[in-house]
Design goal:
This protein has 162 residues and is α+β, with helices and mostly antiparallel strands. It contains five helices and nine strands, in the order αββαβαββαβββαβ. It has one domain. The mean pLDDT is 89.
Length: 162
Amino acid sequence: MIRRLLALIGLGGRERTPSPHLAIDEAWTFSEIRDKHRFLRWVLSAVPDGTIWSIEGVSDPAILYLAQEFSASDGVQIPRATIWPRQNTMKLLLTPESKERLSASLQKWDLDRDLIHQHIYSDAALYFRSYDNLHESCTWVSRLISRDQLEPLLEDNVASLA
C-alpha cells in the first residue's frame, strides 16, 4: 500500500519491468523428473546465452559464493513464491562461462533443499519455470526449446513428458 502511494506521488523508486509469462499451452510439462541434477544441467545447456536465471531459496554458502561471480540485475520483477520464511534470492547471467561453471558444480548441490523456485528468462521470453525444488508437477520448459532439443533428456530417461 505504501509503495503504491509513493508511486502515485512520484517517489516510487526505480522502474520495474513485469515478469515474463509462460502459458501452459506454450510449455513442455513433465510427469516425472528422475534425475534433477542431469535435468537442470540440460536446462542450462538448452536456454540461450544471455538469459537470466532467477533463483529463490538458496541457503548453501558454496552456491551463494559461486553465484556472486555471475550476479545480474535487470529490473525485471519476479514475484516471490514463498511468503514466509523469507528466502534468499539471486539472479545470475547465463553465459557460456557461467553455464559451464554452474553445471560443473551442480552435482554437489542439494536440489531437494536449495533452488526452491526458479525462472530463466530474457526480454519478454520465459524459457523455464519451476517450483518446489524441481517437482515435476510444477516444472515447465517453454516450447521455444524444441522437441529435438528435449530428445536426449527423454532418451536418457532423465525425465518424461506429461
